[in-house]
Write a structure and sequence with these properties.
Jelly Rolls; 3-stranded antiparallel sheet; single chain; mainly beta; 9-stranded antiparallel sheet; globular; about 140 residues
Length: about 140
Amino acid sequence: MITVDLNHLELNEFVGVLEKKQHCKATFPLIGAHGSKELATVYFEIAPGDMLGRHTDSAEELLIILEGEAEVEIGNESICTKKGSVALVPKDIPHNLWNIGSETLKVLGVFGGANNIVATFEEEFLPLNTNVVDTSQIE
């Protein structure tokens, strides 16, 4: 049995090289390296006024808003969401999330059909000095 407590995760901080509002704390609590065979997850938090950063993912993603309020942009569409909302992001479609509320936005992303995900951001971010996150490189 594999379990993860989302309330007790060690998060890594990421900041855009050029766009300082591209700022989040994140981790991948369940991926292939942790024993998953058919899905992967990402958990991230975004402070008020900040955004995740526009990017594409190598698999379909279900975004679950756990806390806060977000503007979710998927392709050419955007919608305001809040705690308890979900949004489906198709594979390889550019998307972004902004925290439009007054509290920390907490989101769980679930990727179907794959245990290793490649996310390609439009902008590089620190501390990785890259715009690509490949979960196959995470232990």
